[in-house]
Amino acid sequence: MTDKKSSGLHWFSPTFMRPGLALAAVGVFSLGALQWSVHAQAPAAKDINPPVDNCNKVVEDTLPDPSQPTDPKRRIARKIGPELLTSGQPCAQIASGLGLLIDNSLGNRQRSFDYYSWLTFLALNSPADGKTIGQGPRPGGDAATKWESVSNYRQLADVMLDKGVKPTWGERIVPDACKALDAPDKMIVKLGEAAWNQPFKTGPLIDQNGNYAVFDILMNQPMFDFIDQNGLYSKQGQERFDNDVVFPLGNNPVSNATDPTKNAPGRMGAVMIKVSWRILDPEKDKALMAKFHTVDALIYFPGPPATKTGPTCVAKTLGLIGFHVGHKTQFAEQWAWTTFEHVANAPDEEQVAKKTLQPPYSFYNPGCPTCPVNQTPPDPWDPPASLKFPTNDKSQVVRIKMLPGPVLQEVADLNRQFRALLKGTVWENYMLLATQWPAVHDSKTDCNGSPAPTYLANTTLETYSQGRVPLASSSCMACHGNATTQHVPATPSDFTFILEKAQCENGTCGAPVTGKRPAQALRCGLAGQLH
Amino acid sequence: MTDVTRRKIFGAAAGTLAGAAAATATAQPAQPAPRDPADVNLFVSLSAALTGIAEAKLAPPVDPVQVKNDYYDQAKSDPSFVALMQIIRADPSNPAAAADKVMNNADAKIKFLGRSIILAWYLGAWYPPVVLQQPAPNSPVPPLKVISSAAYTQAWAYRVAQAHPMGYSELRFGYWSDEPLRLTDFVA
């Protein structure tokens, strides 16, 4: 999604060329003017967060009420129409606090963030070939999405490589065990524990067919480049990095007619995605294929220590069941946390209580009302190559009510409108759960920025930590706020656990190099980010 | 304004922690009852005068936690709540005077309900007025309950002490190796 075409001059920077071209360029320059020679020796650092020219321009969810032009508090909802399907990814939210509710900044901002989340979902899940979402060639208008293209996003397993090797951008990495099964359109999912075990090692999620759910994490190029340029892809690289980890911010373009010096281009900032998949059988689950976004995947088992099984590789069709997006933006330095899931994952607890179930569900058996809900399956958990859980245990998942009533109503209203836009496509089967955002982004005493809503969980990605108990229950920011680097002493890693996955260089960890703790001008590590 | 001293607050905080630790689970908020937002705002206004903590700190303008509702619901369950609120309703423009009338009220039930409300904001726990009326024991009075899980995390005693509740910090990893933030960062 961070577009090459719009990223501007940095594509011509010598530092961005392939090594061979860069060497040739140095040679040419050294024959020329001294200026060029100097430039080649000390090239300007690549802009890791380059300007983009296609930030979503309709990211404001409400507009001034034309019937009451003198009252800025009076707003009307922006029409949710087909033009939004191609409006692009927001570079940041616009959440001024004004909105449909009078004097309710909390409610208005929540709706603004939720609207931003839907735009983000539409943009990221649009076909990688540039077509409109829902107009792909597969059943239900499905197609490979933008985030599944290696030119737009990089899987975590391809960034934190074995032996702390420097990662590359944009090239598929096909393990030897997968080569016989490979084809250009196949997604390769490298299994590690995080690909089947839920946060805090609370266990795997098993669908009603007895298959493991599979998880994956990806990042966009600004996030990748920050890791790459700072050497954070290895454990020792993180030890050597004696600065604050501060991923780049996304911001909307600024156009100031009265003071052009304040004009600024839009930038996308760091984006990370976490997805969950269920295994579908193209024959047995034929009726479901037009209800899920699917990919043809190769599941790679690297072998010990990452997996007990392997090295081996199996081909599976995966259906998307959960979709998290974390986006670091201006006024949301704690990131904006979006989460969507498939509507047929599990019932709400209210639906269970009122017996208004709408089966079938991927993770709930209506025929077993006494089955304990949201319980981890018994050990052992390590998946075999079949990805079938070894016993008959299946997850009985119920969506716990965690959000305040007004948020549930507002999200339900947005879901109804956006899903109507997507009617007849696989994408009508996905719903926003909510967006978590910082209510006080510049707080000195709450580094999580007072998350709103306080708790948020996806039934497929935080199945076992749904609830409303501080620390124990799922809160995107409260959890990710605890993430650290492998620096010694450990330092905050800017709300991502991705850096914990870095391996030791050459496979040898050695004694840790004790570094200094970065001087943080503000306790919350927001120095230089606040606007 | 009140005779609730810092020493007493921290003594009680220890009692609250002990009570919370003894309980296997924190109490959940009572079933939400219809609330009059204006009445809740008055309650916050009076609470600010009682506690000495700014209204905007007790109930920020953009407040996802809404712990004020938990305290309001809890205090409202006391039979003297209506009488207590009538004091601030009589002159909403002067909450300090209302707080003074509460804390020096001839009706002990109102006076000690005022103290219970102060303790609720500082400790996140409910000390029933009837218990507070009894002669001071040698050890801290155990609370009836931690008002809600949110109340446990929001108790002001910890912020006044530039600290945080056991097991729940909103600061970054490694904060303990830096100088503490200023008191004004927490309460001003």
What attributes does this structure have?
heterodimer; A: nine-stranded mixed beta sheet; two-stranded antiparallel ribbon; 8 helices; 16% helix; B: 188 residues; two-stranded antiparallel sheet; 11 helices; 2% strand; globular; disordered N terminus
Task: Summarize, please.
Chain A has eight helices and 13 strands. Chain A has 531 residues and is of the alpha+beta class. In chain A, strand 10 (312-329) and strand 11 form a beta hairpin.
Give an overview in words.
The complex is a heterodimer of chains A (531) and B (188). Chain A folds into 2 domains: 9-41, no CATH class; 50-507, no CATH class. Chain A has 8 helices and 13 strands. Chain A is of the alpha+beta class. In chain A, the strands form 3 sheets. In chain A, strands 4, 5, 6, 8, 9, 10, 11, 12 and 13 form a 9-stranded mixed β-sheet that branches. Chain A has a two-stranded antiparallel sheet with strand order 1-7. A two-stranded antiparallel sheet of chain A has the order 2-3. In chain A, 16% of the residues lie in helices and 15% in strands. Residues 1-40 of chain A have low confidence and may be disordered. Chain A is globular and about 70 Å long. The two termini of chain A are 25 Å apart. With 188 residues, chain B is mostly helical. Chain B has one domain (6-187). Chain B is built from 11 helices and 2 strands; from the N terminus they run H-H-H-H-H-H-H-E-H-E-H-H-H. Chain B has a two-stranded antiparallel sheet. Classes of the chains: A alpha+beta (531), B mainly alpha (188). The A-B interface holds A 97, 105-106, 109, 404, 439-440, 444-448, 450-454, 468-471, 478, 481-484, 489-492, 517, 520, 523-525 and B 26, 28, 60-66, 149-150, 152-153, 159, 167-168, 170-175, 177-178, 181, 185-186.
Topology of this protein?
The complex is a heterodimer of chains A (531) and B (188).
Chain A: H1 19-31, H2 34-41, E1 51-52, E2 62-64, E3 75-77, H3 105-124, E4 153-155, E5 187-190, E6 214-220, H4 221-229, H5 235-240, E7 266-267, E8 271-280, E9 294-301, E10 312-329, E11 332-342, H6 349-354, H7 405-421, E12 430-438, E13 451-452, H8 476-480
Parallel strand pairs in A: 5-9
Antiparallel strand pairs in A: 1-7, 2-3, 4-6, 6-8, 8-10, 9-10, 10-11, 11-12, 12-13
Helix pairs in contact in A: 1-2, 3-7
Chain B: H1 6-22, H2 37-51, H3 55-58, H4 67-76, H5 81-90, H6 95-103, H7 108-123, E1 125-126, H8 129-132, E2 145-146, H9 149-154, H10 156-160, H11 183-187
Antiparallel strand pairs in B: 1-2
